[in-house]
């Protein structure tokens, strides 16, 4: 499935009676890369979960390739092309690495597993190990690889670098950039490391208490230290 555009219009969502996201609107062209920033607890994970249909929606539209998927169940959104790599690394702990990857293939041939092993050689070495036997970083690799194997048209990444060694982080970010620039996927990234987030993305949005307080290009944010300090709470971005 090639990359598709994503447009979110006035989305409000939360958990049970608690509204977390309010009136969130943004759009990402097909094949573009967006980073979502904000301090802890500001709603970044809730935004990705809401796009995937895992929260309660109070209002708004989610247009994937121009068609509203907001009324669809999570599994149907996945079939339409949305793919989430959650912060919780939801791998099957009692299945092997290879069985986990096979579960992500959807209707693709088994030979496609090679793509995952090329991206993460460590997973090939551990392909007969069970999910629970993997380190945190390896679980992160497996969760990411399994979602990418399904070839989503819009990929949602929730802190995919957590627990990975710096050299693997760099390789992984380069792989994400290639997937987007090759027109294969549109990518939304939640990432705490602001430098990685800015290096990765064309554009950025900042969430504060469930609302978008700033949207613009990575370059514009990089050159405005005041904004970074105000909304993200860190100093200079180099
Ligand atoms: N399952 C849930 N039920 C009720 N409230 C929740 C639930 N998950 C998150 N929240 C609340 O929603 C708000 C936003 O949380 P969220 O996890 O989306 O923030 P975040 O920006 O991703 O934070 P972090 O950077 O720490 O991961 C917080 O106030 C949090 O307490």
Protein described:
Keywords: Amino-acid transport, ATP-binding, Nucleotide-binding, Transport. This is ATP-binding cassette domain-containing protein. InterPro entries: AAA+_ATPase (IPR003593), ABC_transporter-like_ATP-bd (IPR003439), BCAA_Transport_ATP-bd_LivF (IPR052156), P-loop_NTPase (IPR027417). This protein is of the alpha/beta class and 238 residues long. The protein has a single domain, classed as P-loop containing nucleotide triphosphate hydrolases (Rossmann fold, 3-Layer(aba) Sandwich), CATH 3.40.50. It has ten helices and ten strands. The strands form two sheets. Strands 6-7-8-3-9-10 form a six-stranded mixed beta sheet, with helices on both faces. Strand 4 and strand 5 form a beta hairpin. Helix 4 packs across helix 6. The model has no long low-confidence stretch (mean pLDDT 92). It binds adenosine-5'-triphosphate. Adenosine-5'-triphosphate (ATP) binds next to strand 2 and helix 1. Adenosine-5'-triphosphate binds next to strand 2 and helix 1.
Can I get a quick summary?
The protein is of the alpha/beta class.
SSE arrangement, N to C: EEEHEEHEHHHHEHEHEEHH
Tell me, briefly, the overall form: globular
- The CATH superfamily is identified as P-loop containing nucleotide triphosphate hydrolases
Number of domains: 1
- How large is the radius of gyration? 17 Å
State the strand order across the main sheet.
6-7-8-3-9-10
**CATH class division:** Alpha Beta
End-to-end Cα distance: 36 Å
Write down the overall mean pLDDT: 92
CATH topology: Rossmann fold
CATH architecture: 3-Layer(aba) Sandwich
Ligands bound to this protein structure: adenosine-5'-triphosphate
Beta strand %? 25-35%
Determine the structural class based on helices, strands and strand pairing. alpha/beta
């Amino acid at each position: 499935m090639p990359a598709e555009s994503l447009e979110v219009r006035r989305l409000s969502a939360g958990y049970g009676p608690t509204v977390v996201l309010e009136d969130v609107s943004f759009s990402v062209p097909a094949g573009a890369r967006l980073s979502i920033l904000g301090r802890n607890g500001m709603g970044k994970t809730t935004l990705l979960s809401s796009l995937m249909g895992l929260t309660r929606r109070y209002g708004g539209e989610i247009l994937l390739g121009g068609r509203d998927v907001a009324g669809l169940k999570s599994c149907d959104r996945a079939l339409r092309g949305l793919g989430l790599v959650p912060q919780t690394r939801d791998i099957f702990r009692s299945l092997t690495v290879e069985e986990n990857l096979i579960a992500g293939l959807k209707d693709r041939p088994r030979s496609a597993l090679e793509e995952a092993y090329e991206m993460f050689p460590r997973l090939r070495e551990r392909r007969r190990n069970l999910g629970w036997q993997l380190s945190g970083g390896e679980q992160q690799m497996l969760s990411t690889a399994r979602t990418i194997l399904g070839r989503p048209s819009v990929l949602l990444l929730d802190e995919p670098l957590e627990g990975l060694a710096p050299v693997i982080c760099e390789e992984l970010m380069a792989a994400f950039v290639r997937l987007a620039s090759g027109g294969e996927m549109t990518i939304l990234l939640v990432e705490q490391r602001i430098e990685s987030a800015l290096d990765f993305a064309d554009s950025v949005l900042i969430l504060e208490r469930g609302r978008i307080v700033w949207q613009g290009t990575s370059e514009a944010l990089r050159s405005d230290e005041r904004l970074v300090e105000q909304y993200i709470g860190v100093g200079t971005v180099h």
